[in-house]
Amino acid sequence: MTPRVGLAGYETTSNDGTVIVRARLATAGATTTISGQGNGPISALVHALRQDLGIEVDVLDYAEHALGAGEEATAVAYVEVRSHNDVRWGVGMDPNITTASMKAVLSALERLGVDLLAVGEVAVTAD
Prior knowledge:
The protein has a four-stranded antiparallel sheet. The chain has a three-stranded antiparallel sheet with strand order 4-5-6. The radius of gyration is 14 Å and the shape is globular. By secondary structure, it is α+β, with helices and mostly antiparallel strands. A hairpin with a 6-residue loop joins strand 4 and strand 5 (74-83). 22% of the residues lie in helices and 47% in strands.
């Protein structure tokens, strides 16, 4: 199943233990950029979802593992999130563990039925 909203890209910076994430979310014909900060990339993404899109979300659990070995391994991340007392797991896969983790958060929100680009006051631009 193809997600309705995908992670089109992101940038992270780190300074004195604070990570800042600027993420681009995309769907057919529209993109939006959100940014937030936290103690790691997932925390920063969650803060961006809260402040820029108004999404109530908390990460409850996180796990990861590799499919394969060596340089060609694929990272798989599992994230359990809660939004408005509803809990779901999301899964993300990517060669980069940070990207896989962010995809897992978005996957969990999609499983909760959250329409990421229709929430809050967001600037959505046509591709």
